[in-house]
Amino acid sequence: MNIHNKKKVVSFLKYKREFQKYGLKKVRSYELILHWLSSRLSRSQFLILSGILVGCTAGLAGVLLKTLVHKIHFWIVTKVHFEDQIFFYVVFPFLGIVLTTIIVLGIFKGNDRKGIGAILYEIAQNSSIVSSVKMYSQIIQSAVTIGLGGSAGLESPIAVTGAAIGSNFSQTYRLGYKERTLLLAAGASAGIASAFNAPIAGIMFAFEILLTGVVFSDFIPLVVAAVCGSLLSRILLQEDVLFHFYARNSFDYHNILYYLILGIAAGFYARYFVLIYIKTEHFVKSFKISRLRKAMIGGAALSLLCVLLPPLFGEGYDTLKTLTNGETTGIIEHSFFGYFNLGSWTVIIFLALVCVLKAFATSITIFSGGNGGNFAPSLFAGGTLGFLFALICKQFGLTDVPTSNLVLAGMAAVMSGVLYAPLTAIFLIAESSQGYDLFLPLMIVSVISYLMARWFSPVNPDLQPMVEQGKIFTNEHDNNLVYSLHLRDFIDHQSQTIKADAPISELFELIKNGKKNIFAVVDDESSLQGVLTMDDVRPYLFNPDEEMHTNIHHIMKAPPATVHLSDNAVAILKTFDDTGAWHLPVVNEDDRFIGFISKSKILTGYRQLLKDYS
């Protein structure tokens, strides 16, 4: 062993003794090694290593979940005749939602925050700190829901799982907010890359949805994590599990009109899908019954839909692959529509019903108690819409219709309009079909659908409630940073108060013994009555005659505005700007005074965040 290596070993043993000295004897060996490496490697080197570890872990989680669900579906759909499948379609979706609800209530104490909104919330409101429970809860819940036939997607749960892995990794090694957010996004992108075997799409997902407005110069760990997740997916998953489409046509510019029309149709459908999704959520929440009963009603409704239209069972990727190959016979035969013989119109009616009811099936699955996301449903609905459009064109006598290309373009278009993520949709389909020559039509349909979605609603309606409540912000970099500031961190809880009926001499004592320039006037219940500043008191300081006949009630004034604990930092700064004040009183929901908040403190906190991101 050379001298250099001996020094490294001695240094490592010394590092281990330091941990033991502080009572950290239960630190795992690999954690100790990584702690030691973090002290030896540069920041960039350790972030790249972190990206590899987070990406591999999130990728393995995605592979595990995809494999588990695929095995269940394969057994039900391919090993059982349709007459027997009816029994499974009746029982399994119902069980999936009910069992998921029981698991959430019994094991996870009713905590079922899910979807991409959950990640955005943790970034904006919780300093990118995600509960360690999320590293496995989403896998368990979504595996039960979708494995047993829930009409939703695995990708959102995989993304949340990856985000939790990245966040907890950074917490373990005491990384800062900037690095924690970066590794959170890296874990989510690795999960998406693993689910679709599309690393670029995973990276686009992170930048386009999770890190909107956040500028990172250290994006290499994000790339490394996505590549690791995709590689593990390619190595470990079987070909029939991978999200891959091989049948497609070369792009012909003469077909550009097809893509323009499909883009518009997809834009309207995406709006329909989102509206059904939101209205179903409100409808389910309006039920004043237990969550378990909601799950039973929702499970029964989903089972009925799956019996009538079997493609609504599960993610539906097998159906998409069949449609891409131009085959519909197998899909129709495994449904009640197989008993009818209306030619092409049977297929058109069947697929139209699938498109219309997919939005209901997904919404019922998610909001009645299941766990899943909108990735797979939007892709499934878009592919079905593209194939339906191609069939209608052929029915009207048009020839040379690029059916497989329209299926792929429809997937990208609807996903773009539903998720407000055109770049993610474009690269996802291009990578999954190896159709890089289809970039032009994919861009056409995705941009049209996205612009239509933005025309209907500038913010994704799925995230609108959290945006309105100030829990997340989806546009500007500055507002994203300000939203991450927490009001409670800037309240001066040592603020001085005085009763409204107190004599002014009592205020003089406060001034003499304190260091405050502003005072809150309260009643016996601590409710805010007014405020006083040194400028208000100055005329009485050297006028004994006035002092004898004056109490606080006579000289106090109304505050220019009040701040509530539920207000976010952006709204508070706007109030400061509107009033021109530098100090405002903070009250609770009962209007009881809590303390003063200073504009200068908020701006100092904001500058510190800018420094952390520089």
TrEMBL record:
Spell out the SMART domains in the cross-references: CBS (SM00116)
Task: Return the Gene3D superfamilies for the record.
Answer: CBS-domain (3.10.580.10), Clc chloride channel (1.10.3080.10)
Recorded hits in CDD domains, A to Z, give: CBS_pair_SF, Voltage_gated_ClC
Give any Pfam family that matches: Voltage_CLC
| Membrane spanning residue stretches | 46-65, 86-108, 182-207, 219-236, 256-274, 295-313, 345-367, 379-398, 404-429, 436-456
Main localization is membrane
Localization, per the record, is: Membrane
Q: How does it sit in the membrane?
A: Multi-pass membrane protein
Annotated CBS domain ranges read 491-547, 556-613
Q: Which GO terms describe its cellular component?
A: chloride channel complex
Query: Key word Zinc present in the record?
Result: no
Query: Which keywords, in A-to-Z order, does the entry hold?
Result: CBS domain, Chloride, Chloride channel, Ion channel, Ion transport, Membrane, Transmembrane, Transmembrane helix, Transport
The answer to whether the entry has keyword Ion transport is yes
* GO MF entry, a single one: chloride channel activity
PANTHER family according to UniProt: CHLORIDE CHANNEL PROTEIN CLC-E
The name this protein goes by in its record: Chloride channel protein, CIC family
Q: Which organism is it from?
A: Halpernia humi
Q: Lineage of the native species?
A: Bacteria, Pseudomonadati, Bacteroidota, Flavobacteriia, Flavobacteriales
